[in-house]
Write a structure and sequence with these properties.
alpha/beta, Rossmann fold
Length: 284
Protein backbone atom coordinates (compact mmCIF):
# COMPACT_ATOMS: atom_id res chain seq x y z
CA UNK A 1 0.00 0.00 0.00
CA UNK A 2 1.30 3.46 -0.92
CA UNK A 3 1.65 5.87 1.99
CA UNK A 4 1.39 9.66 1.92
CA UNK A 5 1.91 12.28 4.62
CA UNK A 6 -0.56 15.17 4.44
CA UNK A 7 -0.35 18.18 6.75
CA UNK A 8 -3.32 20.11 8.06
CA UNK A 9 -6.02 17.48 7.53
CA UNK A 10 -8.57 18.33 10.22
CA UNK A 11 -10.77 20.30 7.80
CA UNK A 12 -10.76 21.96 4.38
CA UNK A 13 -8.37 21.04 1.59
CA UNK A 14 -6.38 18.64 3.77
CA UNK A 15 -9.53 16.69 4.59
CA UNK A 16 -10.45 16.57 0.90
CA UNK A 17 -7.00 15.31 -0.06
CA UNK A 18 -7.16 12.64 2.65
CA UNK A 19 -10.58 11.45 1.49
CA UNK A 20 -9.51 11.16 -2.15
CA UNK A 21 -6.18 9.43 -1.46
CA UNK A 22 -7.75 6.90 0.88
CA UNK A 23 -10.46 6.31 -1.70
CA UNK A 24 -7.70 5.33 -4.12
CA UNK A 25 -6.31 2.74 -1.73
CA UNK A 26 -3.52 4.77 -0.14
CA UNK A 27 -2.64 5.07 3.53
CA UNK A 28 -2.60 8.65 4.82
CA UNK A 29 -0.55 9.88 7.75
CA UNK A 30 -2.35 13.15 8.49
CA UNK A 31 -1.17 15.93 10.75
CA UNK A 32 -3.50 17.57 13.25
CA UNK A 33 -2.84 19.91 16.15
CA UNK A 34 -5.55 18.57 18.45
CA UNK A 35 -5.79 14.93 19.60
CA UNK A 36 -9.58 15.00 19.30
CA UNK A 37 -9.29 15.86 15.59
CA UNK A 38 -7.06 12.85 15.08
CA UNK A 39 -9.57 10.63 16.89
CA UNK A 40 -12.45 12.00 14.80
CA UNK A 41 -10.63 11.39 11.52
CA UNK A 42 -9.52 7.94 12.62
CA UNK A 43 -13.16 7.07 13.28
CA UNK A 44 -14.14 8.49 9.90
CA UNK A 45 -11.43 6.92 7.74
CA UNK A 46 -10.55 3.79 9.72
CA UNK A 47 -7.31 1.87 9.46
CA UNK A 48 -6.29 3.70 6.28
CA UNK A 49 -5.60 6.80 8.37
CA UNK A 50 -2.93 7.42 11.00
CA UNK A 51 -3.00 10.74 12.86
CA UNK A 52 0.23 12.63 13.46
CA UNK A 53 0.13 15.22 16.22
CA UNK A 54 2.19 18.31 15.43
CA UNK A 55 2.23 21.98 14.53
CA UNK A 56 4.34 22.55 11.41
CA UNK A 57 6.40 25.20 13.21
CA UNK A 58 7.41 22.80 16.01
CA UNK A 59 10.64 21.19 14.79
CA UNK A 60 10.85 18.62 17.58
CA UNK A 61 7.26 17.46 17.14
CA UNK A 62 7.64 17.21 13.36
CA UNK A 63 10.85 15.21 13.74
CA UNK A 64 9.11 12.85 16.19
CA UNK A 65 6.30 12.33 13.69
CA UNK A 66 8.80 11.53 10.95
CA UNK A 67 10.33 8.89 13.23
CA UNK A 68 6.85 7.44 13.80
CA UNK A 69 6.23 7.22 10.05
CA UNK A 70 9.67 5.70 9.42
CA UNK A 71 8.89 2.90 11.83
CA UNK A 72 5.60 2.19 10.08
CA UNK A 73 7.24 2.12 6.63
CA UNK A 74 9.63 -0.63 7.74
CA UNK A 75 12.53 0.32 5.46
CA UNK A 76 10.41 1.38 2.46
CA UNK A 77 10.20 4.85 0.93
CA UNK A 78 7.27 7.20 1.47
CA UNK A 79 5.16 7.64 -1.68
CA UNK A 80 4.32 11.30 -1.13
CA UNK A 81 4.33 14.37 1.09
CA UNK A 82 1.58 16.98 0.74
CA UNK A 83 2.48 20.26 2.42
CA UNK A 84 -0.98 21.72 2.92
CA UNK A 85 -1.10 23.36 6.36
CA UNK A 86 -1.35 27.14 6.19
CA UNK A 87 -3.03 30.26 7.54
CA UNK A 88 -4.14 33.66 6.28
CA UNK A 89 -4.38 36.98 8.12
CA UNK A 90 -6.29 39.89 6.54
CA UNK A 91 -5.37 43.53 6.87
CA UNK A 92 -3.84 46.46 4.98
CA UNK A 93 -0.07 46.16 4.91
CA UNK A 94 0.43 49.75 6.10
CA UNK A 95 -1.25 48.84 9.39
CA UNK A 96 -0.77 45.09 9.76
CA UNK A 97 1.00 44.20 13.03
CA UNK A 98 4.47 42.90 12.18
CA UNK A 99 4.02 39.95 14.54
CA UNK A 100 1.07 38.82 12.43
CA UNK A 101 3.18 38.98 9.28
CA UNK A 102 5.91 36.98 10.99
CA UNK A 103 3.41 34.34 12.08
CA UNK A 104 2.03 33.89 8.57
CA UNK A 105 5.54 33.50 7.16
CA UNK A 106 6.50 31.12 9.97
CA UNK A 107 3.58 28.79 9.22
CA UNK A 108 3.23 29.13 5.44
CA UNK A 109 6.92 29.18 4.54
CA UNK A 110 9.24 28.16 7.36
CA UNK A 111 6.88 25.43 8.55
CA UNK A 112 6.76 23.91 5.06
CA UNK A 113 10.55 23.59 5.03
CA UNK A 114 10.60 22.17 8.55
CA UNK A 115 8.23 19.41 7.44
CA UNK A 116 10.11 18.84 4.18
CA UNK A 117 13.48 18.53 5.93
CA UNK A 118 12.08 15.95 8.34
CA UNK A 119 10.30 13.80 5.75
CA UNK A 120 12.66 14.13 2.74
CA UNK A 121 14.84 11.22 3.95
CA UNK A 122 11.75 8.98 3.87
CA UNK A 123 10.98 10.12 0.32
CA UNK A 124 14.35 8.83 -0.83
CA UNK A 125 17.00 11.27 0.35
CA UNK A 126 18.00 8.42 2.68
CA UNK A 127 19.56 6.10 0.14
CA UNK A 128 19.36 3.12 2.50
CA UNK A 129 15.58 2.89 2.07
CA UNK A 130 14.06 0.57 -0.51
CA UNK A 131 11.64 1.68 -3.19
CA UNK A 132 11.03 4.39 -5.75
CA UNK A 133 11.68 7.98 -4.62
CA UNK A 134 8.54 9.80 -3.51
CA UNK A 135 7.10 13.12 -4.57
CA UNK A 136 6.31 16.37 -2.75
CA UNK A 137 3.18 18.41 -3.46
CA UNK A 138 3.19 21.99 -2.22
CA UNK A 139 -0.24 23.58 -1.77
CA UNK A 140 0.22 27.17 -2.90
CA UNK A 141 -2.55 29.46 -4.17
CA UNK A 142 -3.46 31.81 -6.98
CA UNK A 143 -2.02 34.29 -4.48
CA UNK A 144 1.35 32.70 -5.21
CA UNK A 145 1.30 34.58 -8.52
CA UNK A 146 -1.21 37.40 -7.97
CA UNK A 147 -1.42 39.65 -4.91
CA UNK A 148 -4.83 40.57 -3.52
CA UNK A 149 -5.43 43.78 -1.54
CA UNK A 150 -5.59 43.22 2.21
CA UNK A 151 -4.19 39.70 1.93
CA UNK A 152 -0.62 40.86 1.41
CA UNK A 153 0.90 38.71 4.16
CA UNK A 154 -0.71 35.59 2.70
CA UNK A 155 0.31 36.52 -0.85
CA UNK A 156 3.87 37.18 0.26
CA UNK A 157 4.07 33.78 1.96
CA UNK A 158 2.71 31.97 -1.10
CA UNK A 159 5.02 33.84 -3.51
CA UNK A 160 7.89 32.82 -1.24
CA UNK A 161 6.66 29.22 -1.12
CA UNK A 162 6.66 29.05 -4.91
CA UNK A 163 10.27 30.26 -5.05
CA UNK A 164 11.27 27.79 -2.35
CA UNK A 165 9.50 25.00 -4.24
CA UNK A 166 11.30 25.73 -7.50
CA UNK A 167 14.70 25.75 -5.83
CA UNK A 168 13.84 22.63 -3.87
CA UNK A 169 12.68 20.80 -6.98
CA UNK A 170 16.03 21.39 -8.64
CA UNK A 171 18.01 20.43 -5.56
CA UNK A 172 16.09 17.20 -5.05
CA UNK A 173 16.72 16.03 -8.60
CA UNK A 174 19.85 14.49 -7.07
CA UNK A 175 17.62 11.97 -5.27
CA UNK A 176 14.92 11.59 -7.93
CA UNK A 177 12.37 13.36 -5.70
CA UNK A 178 10.03 15.64 -7.64
CA UNK A 179 8.28 18.76 -6.28
CA UNK A 180 4.94 19.81 -7.77
CA UNK A 181 2.91 22.90 -6.89
CA UNK A 182 -0.89 22.75 -6.73
CA UNK A 183 -2.30 26.29 -6.63
CA UNK A 184 -6.02 26.52 -5.90
CA UNK A 185 -8.34 29.46 -6.24
CA UNK A 186 -11.37 29.68 -3.96
CA UNK A 187 -12.32 26.38 -2.33
CA UNK A 188 -15.64 25.96 -0.54
CA UNK A 189 -14.44 25.14 2.98
CA UNK A 190 -15.30 26.03 6.56
CA UNK A 191 -12.87 28.97 6.43
CA UNK A 192 -15.43 31.17 4.71
CA UNK A 193 -17.92 30.78 7.56
CA UNK A 194 -15.16 31.84 9.96
CA UNK A 195 -14.31 34.80 7.71
CA UNK A 196 -17.70 36.33 8.50
CA UNK A 197 -16.48 36.80 12.07
CA UNK A 198 -13.09 38.33 11.31
CA UNK A 199 -12.50 41.35 13.53
CA UNK A 200 -11.56 44.32 11.36
CA UNK A 201 -12.06 46.94 14.08
CA UNK A 202 -8.29 47.55 14.46
CA UNK A 203 -8.48 49.20 11.04
CA UNK A 204 -11.74 51.10 11.66
CA UNK A 205 -9.98 54.47 11.74
CA UNK A 206 -7.87 53.85 8.66
CA UNK A 207 -8.59 55.03 5.13
CA UNK A 208 -9.25 51.39 4.26
CA UNK A 209 -12.15 50.74 6.68
CA UNK A 210 -15.03 50.69 4.18
CA UNK A 211 -12.94 48.86 1.58
CA UNK A 212 -12.13 46.05 4.01
CA UNK A 213 -15.79 45.24 4.62
CA UNK A 214 -16.40 45.28 0.88
CA UNK A 215 -13.53 42.85 0.25
CA UNK A 216 -14.60 40.57 3.10
CA UNK A 217 -18.16 40.31 1.78
CA UNK A 218 -16.92 39.69 -1.76
CA UNK A 219 -14.53 36.95 -0.65
CA UNK A 220 -17.10 35.19 1.53
CA UNK A 221 -19.66 35.24 -1.27
CA UNK A 222 -17.23 33.89 -3.86
CA UNK A 223 -15.52 31.49 -1.47
CA UNK A 224 -18.75 29.66 -0.79
CA UNK A 225 -19.11 29.23 -4.56
CA UNK A 226 -15.61 27.81 -4.82
CA UNK A 227 -14.35 24.38 -5.82
CA UNK A 228 -15.13 21.35 -3.70
CA UNK A 229 -12.52 19.97 -1.34
CA UNK A 230 -12.64 16.70 -3.24
CA UNK A 231 -11.79 18.45 -6.52
CA UNK A 232 -8.61 19.74 -4.91
CA UNK A 233 -8.00 16.22 -3.61
CA UNK A 234 -8.21 14.89 -7.15
CA UNK A 235 -5.76 17.55 -8.34
CA UNK A 236 -3.29 16.46 -5.64
CA UNK A 237 -3.80 12.82 -6.61
CA UNK A 238 -2.93 13.73 -10.19
CA UNK A 239 0.17 15.65 -9.08
CA UNK A 240 1.29 12.64 -7.02
CA UNK A 241 0.64 9.90 -9.56
CA UNK A 242 1.01 11.30 -13.10
CA UNK A 243 4.10 9.84 -14.75
CA UNK A 244 5.34 13.19 -16.08
CA UNK A 245 3.57 15.90 -14.08
CA UNK A 246 3.65 19.60 -14.74
CA UNK A 247 5.64 21.62 -12.23
CA UNK A 248 2.53 23.64 -11.34
CA UNK A 249 -1.23 23.04 -11.50
CA UNK A 250 -3.57 26.03 -11.16
CA UNK A 251 -6.95 24.72 -10.00
CA UNK A 252 -9.27 27.71 -10.25
CA UNK A 253 -13.06 28.13 -10.51
CA UNK A 254 -14.18 30.16 -13.53
CA UNK A 255 -10.62 29.70 -14.73
CA UNK A 256 -10.66 32.09 -17.66
CA UNK A 257 -11.89 35.10 -15.66
CA UNK A 258 -10.02 34.36 -12.44
CA UNK A 259 -6.72 33.11 -13.84
CA UNK A 260 -6.17 33.21 -17.60
CA UNK A 261 -7.48 36.71 -18.35
CA UNK A 262 -5.67 38.53 -15.52
CA UNK A 263 -2.43 36.85 -16.62
CA UNK A 264 -3.00 37.99 -20.20
CA UNK A 265 -4.00 41.56 -19.37
CA UNK A 266 -0.90 42.38 -17.35
CA UNK A 267 -0.46 43.83 -13.87
CA UNK A 268 -1.17 47.50 -14.63
CA UNK A 269 -4.48 46.74 -16.30
CA UNK A 270 -5.51 44.45 -13.46
CA UNK A 271 -4.47 47.19 -10.97
CA UNK A 272 -6.99 49.54 -12.57
CA UNK A 273 -9.73 46.90 -12.55
CA UNK A 274 -9.14 46.12 -8.87
CA UNK A 275 -9.03 49.81 -7.95
CA UNK A 276 -12.33 50.43 -9.70
CA UNK A 277 -14.03 47.44 -8.08
CA UNK A 278 -12.82 48.22 -4.57
CA UNK A 279 -12.73 52.00 -4.70
CA UNK A 280 -8.97 52.19 -4.27
CA UNK A 281 -8.35 55.09 -6.66
CA UNK A 282 -7.31 58.41 -5.03
CA UNK A 283 -10.47 60.08 -6.33
CA UNK A 284 -12.81 57.27 -5.29
Amino acid sequence: MKSVVVTGVSTGIGWGVTKVLIGKGMHVFGSVRKPEDGERLKAEFGDAFTPLLFDVTDEAAVAAAATQVREKLNGETLFGLVNNAGIGVPGPLLHLPIDELRNVMEVNLVGQLIVTQSFAPLLGADLDLKGTPGRIVMISSVAGKMGTPFLGAYAASKHALEGLSESLRRELMLFGIDVVIVAPGAVATEIWNKAQNIDLTPYANSAYASKLDQVKNYMVENGNKGLSREKLGRAVLKALTTANPKTRYAVVPNRFMNWTLPRLLGSRTVDKMVAKRLGLSPDA
